Amino acid sequence: MNRRTVLLLAVTCAVAVGNIYFPQAVGPLVANGLHVSPDAASALVTATQIGYTAGTVLLVPLGDRLPHRPFLVTLLGLTGLALLAAGCAPALPPLLAAGAVVGLTTVGAQIAGPLAAGLVGADRQGAVLGTLLSGSTGGMLLARTFSGTLGEWLGWRAPYLVAAVLALLLATVLAFAVPTTVPSSRQRYAALLAEPLRLLRTEPDLRRSCFYQATVFAGFSAVWTCLALLLAGPAYGLDTRAVGTIALVGAATMLCTPLAGRLVDRHGPDPVNLVCLLGVLVSAAVLTAGARGGVPGLAALVLGTLLLDVTMQSGMVANQVRIYALRADARSRLSTAYMTCAYLGGSAGSWLGVRIWSRAGWHGVCALVALLAILALTRHLLALHTAKNGGRRRRTRRVLQRVPSTASDRNE
């Protein structure tokens, strides 16, 4: 696979992920434009996220059953049509329905990963997956800023219509630029849906990769959910725009994830996971200083969130390389299991973070991040210890097999 195809798939990831996040920035504009309450308009974000969860469970496993190129093109085409319907919606109910369809079909990033992993050798998977993750990060960051600015200028419908044009143009390009692939499975749809659960039961490396990402993403979600509460509180007295400004530091991960991918290719996923989990633990300590307020506290928040972003995303590259190596014929189903666990972890982290904030404040949230990192780190060290002992036992068996066991053996 050439560099142009990698970049095209990275753009696909950016567009797909951006469609999930840009509705967050146009909620107030939707409320004014359709004359509904802000609370009612916020249901648009929920509808999109529910649709995305359903797409992960119901559509992503089909990536092992259908050829990747027509599947991606179809998904993007349906996304473009749903975005067009959303941009033309006359009232909130049809807008919510269209938003749910957008979420359902905009799972292209989860199809692009297995596709790219199958088109390159094992020694390049980390670098390629890191590039795709950079695209996803860029889509998440740019979508909010672009949609908010465009919506203020031309109204809330404009971001949906522009996103529709982008999705349809990208579908057209992909129809000619992406290499053809042969489906890896002939299983029926019902069997494909059940396969992620079976893989979680039978693949220990999948379970531990899911555990790493679920715990780290839970801490990540807790921090970003409660950061707005901290900045709006007495320690800082800032508005929500400050959260968006701090979030821009996450753009650094666009540079770091390809580097992390190359390190995974060179040293394997386990050392990179170890460094990343230690980095999450350090970020929790740095973020604790953010409770003091003022310039030093703000600097600690910027540095801590940057470290947390980089380590979470770099760890995700390592996890994806590990799970894609388990079964080349089931990468989409492996991705379904992995992303579902990660999403559940993030949702649980947001829920738990708010409740800890109400009882223990920012220090409690940082303690939660540290505890989750320690749990993942402990699990990782146990896995490394088990792998080391297993390797030692295998070497011992090989030595014993080469040593004659009796005098007659030696005579022979």
TrEMBL record:
Residues 403-412 have a biased composition (Polar residues). One of its GO terms (cellular component) is plasma membrane. One of its GO terms (molecular function) is transmembrane transporter activity. Gene3D superfamilies: MFS general substrate transporter like domains (1.20.1250.20). Residues 393-412 are annotated as: Disordered. The chain crosses the membrane at residues 40-60, 72-92, 98-120, 127-146, 158-178, 210-236, 242-260, 272-291, 297-317, 337-354, 360-384. Residues 1-388 form the Major facilitator superfamily (MFS) profile domain. It is found in: Cell membrane. This is Permease. It comes from Streptomyces chrestomyceticus JCM 4735.
